[in-house]
């Protein structure tokens, strides 16, 4: 809770005037985790980025802004994953500069600069410790570190660089971060650009083919009336003549003059898409914690439980094993709620004798798991529920066979739709394979890492070291054009898989998958069975 926002400023100052503010270094925390990524890891990632950067270039990475939860209370701060990846820094109000080449500075030189949030013992008394310049040097291994306020006066001539590489600039930044962004835009002469247009051009460059160009144009059509799209010669050229020759010409033009934004996306996608051994240690732990939590939720469930109570069980297990958070808002949907893909309310007071779909993943030291299980609250699948569940399980098994180096990423989706459509036709739920999207509206996979939908290549082949999800699902809400006996059945099974040279490794194996194992686990006793609290008065 940030008590230094306006409403509390006066009270805080009065209170602090009468108290002694101690140095944070004299009162350092103990018993902290010891398995964070090391400074050597982050330095290695910065060097890997330099190796990809073009000559005479600089990459600029800003911290994420703080977000207001309500009035004078902020959300718990979540660092920019790219900032964390390249530095280990987890605080706001900072900018990191990574240079391709050594920069002369009198008798010395440097190839990176870091401007960070300044120390403030009084504020730290209220809102927690800050690393500051000294802490970043000592704990994160940087040599050239300055307070963020010094960025505006630091003699950096951005005009001398041929290429300035940067991510989306946080337009809603405030305070010190706003000043950092404004200074950068002025010094580097960064013009306001249409981020949607740049994103669409990047998608065209990386993923468009003669086979899917119609789908891509359909996707961008709602924005074609925008001024930036009207002025884009490349967009207009492709829309007016969407054939293979035009596509190749447009892609060549985009690639011949990439923007700083597109280069940042390209480089970070390539780097973060394949996990290092150090990252895999943390990611595997996050998935293991999540899997154990899912199994415990199965054991604990009763028809009288609320969706929120099941969410709480998951969170408790995560915290028990040291996970700092969840990688995304937990999804706990009973019955028809399970047919809502991102159902986050979790407000049903009883799950009753229904299927419960739980999509919950722990975040451990920044790395997010993404695991989904679907199980009957009363311990037994109905025939209809079991039939749908088995289709999902079988689709997963077929896709698992493809989770190896060299397989086209798109083949996972092709196989999924092939299995789901054929089996739904057998059950009489659909009549034609083209109708499968009615009940399977999402994709089967995404990359996993510092973001739950992590950066990674989606248009090429799988590579050893990637970690992806495999998550087929079928959702049949009430009112669907099929027999009523299928209504309100929503099933998704989602597992996390490490891509190997010859086969994938199922990381989420500790969460039961077969329907027989699910029923057996629901029948088991839980550590929460004896947890009884007094009734509210």
Mind explaining what this structure looks like?
- The relative contact order is 0.09.
- With 537 residues, the protein is α+β, with helices and mostly antiparallel strands.
- A five-stranded mixed β-sheet has the order 6-5-4-1-7, sandwiched between helices.
- It is 38% helix and 14% strand.
- The protein has three domains: 6-187, Creatinase/prolidase N-terminal domain (Creatine Amidinohydrolase, Chain A, domain 1), CATH 3.40.350; 195-258, no CATH class; 274-523, Creatine Amidinohydrolase (Alpha-Beta Complex).
- It is globular and about 75 Å long.
Blueprint (SSEs and pairs):
Elements (H helix, E strand, L loop, with lengths): L5 H12 L21 H14 L4 E6 L5 E3 L2 E2 L6 H7 L7 E11 L2 E9 L4 H7 L4 H9 L4 E3 L15 E4 L8 H13 L7 H13 L5 H8 L6 H5 L1 H8 L3 H13 L3 H14 L3 H24 L6 H14 L4 E2 L4 E4 L20 E5 L2 E3 L2 E2 L3 E5 L6 H18 L8 H18 L40 E4 L2 E4 L12 E4 L2 E4 L6 E2 L8 H9 L14
Parallel strand pairs: 1-7, 5-6
Antiparallel strand pairs: 1-4, 2-3, 4-5, 8-11, 9-10, 10-13, 11-12, 14-17, 15-16, 17-18
Helix pairs in contact: 2-3, 7-11, 10-11, 13-14, 13-17, 15-16
Distance between the termini: 29 Å
- What is the tally of beta strands? 18
Major sheet size, sense and barrel closure: 5 strands, mixed
Reading off the top of the CATH hierarchy, the class of the largest domain is best stated as Alpha Beta
Identify the CATH architecture of the largest domain.
Alpha-Beta Complex
Query: What is the approximate shape?
Result: globular
| Total domains | 3
> What's the helix count?
17
What is the residue-mean pLDDT, rounded to a whole number?
Answer: 92
Radius of gyration equals 26 Å
* Share of β-strand residues: 5-15%
């Amino acid at each position: 809770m940030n008590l230094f926002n306006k409403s509390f400023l006066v009270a805080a100052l009065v209170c602090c005037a009468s108290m002694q503010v101690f140095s944070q270094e004299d009162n350092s925390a103990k018993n902290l985790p010891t398995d964070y990524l090391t400074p050597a890891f982050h330095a290695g990632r910065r060097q890997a980025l330099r190796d990809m950067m073009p000559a005479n270039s600089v990459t600029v990475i800003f911290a994420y802004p703080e977000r207001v939860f309500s009035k004078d209370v902020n959300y718990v701060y979540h660092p920019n994953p790219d900032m964390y990846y390249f530095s280990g820094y987890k605080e706001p109000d900072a900018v990191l500069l990574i240079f391709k080449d050594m920069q002369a500075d009198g008798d010395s030189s440097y190839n990176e600069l870091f401007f960070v949030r300044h120390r403030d013992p009084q504020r730290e008394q209220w809102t927690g410790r800050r690393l500051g310049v000294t802490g970043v040097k000592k704990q994160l291994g940087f040599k050239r570190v300055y307070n963020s306020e010094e960025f505006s006066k630091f003699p950096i001539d951005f005009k001398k660089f041929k290429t300035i590489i940067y991510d989306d600039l946080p337009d809603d930044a405030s305070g010190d971060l706003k000043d950092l962004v404004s200074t950068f835009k002025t010094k580097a002469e960064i013009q306001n650009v249409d981020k949607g247009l740049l994103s669409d051009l990047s998608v065209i460059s990386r993923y468009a083919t003669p086979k899917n160009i119609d789908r891509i144009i359909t996707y961008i059509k709602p924005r074609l009336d925008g001024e930036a799209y009207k002025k884009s010669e490349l967009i207009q050229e492709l829309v007016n003549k969407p054939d293979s020759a035009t596509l190749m010409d447009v892609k060549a033009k985009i690639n011949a003059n990439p923007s700083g934004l597109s280069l940042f996306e390209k480089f970070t996608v390539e780097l973060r898409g394949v996990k290092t051994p150090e990252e895999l240690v943390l990611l595997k732990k996050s998935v293991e914690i999540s899997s154990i939590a899912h199994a415990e939720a199965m054991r604990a469930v009763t028809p009288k439980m609320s969706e929120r109570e099941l969410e709480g069980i998951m969170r408790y297990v995560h915290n028990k094993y040291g996970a700092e958070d969840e990688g995304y808002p937990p999804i706990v949907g009973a019955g028809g709620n399970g047919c809502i893909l991102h159902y986050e309310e979790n407000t049903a007071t009883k799950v009753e004798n229904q299927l419960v779909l739980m999509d919950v993943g722990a975040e451990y030291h920044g790395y997010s798991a993404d695991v989904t299980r679907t199980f009957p609250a009363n311990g037994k699948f109905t025939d209809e529920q079991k039939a749908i569940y088995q289709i999902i399980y079988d689709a997963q098994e077929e896709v698992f066979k493809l989770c190896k180096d060299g397989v086209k990423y798109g083949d996972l989706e092709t196989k999924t739709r092939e299995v789901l459509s054929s089996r739904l036709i057998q059950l009489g739920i659909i009549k034609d394979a083209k109708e499968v999207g009615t009940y399977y509206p999402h994709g089967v996979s995404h990359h996993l890492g510092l973001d739950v939908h992590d950066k990674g290549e989606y248009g090429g082949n799988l590579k050893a070291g990637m970690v992806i999800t495999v998550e087929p699902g079928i959702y049949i809400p009430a009112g669907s054009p099929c027999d009523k006996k299928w209504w309100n059945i929503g099933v998704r099974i989602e597992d996390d898989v490490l891509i190997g040279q010859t086969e994938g490794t199922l990381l989420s194996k500790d969460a039961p998958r077969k329907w027989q194992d699910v029923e057996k686990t629901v029948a088991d006793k839980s550590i929460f069975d004896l947890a009884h609290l007094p009734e509210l008065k």
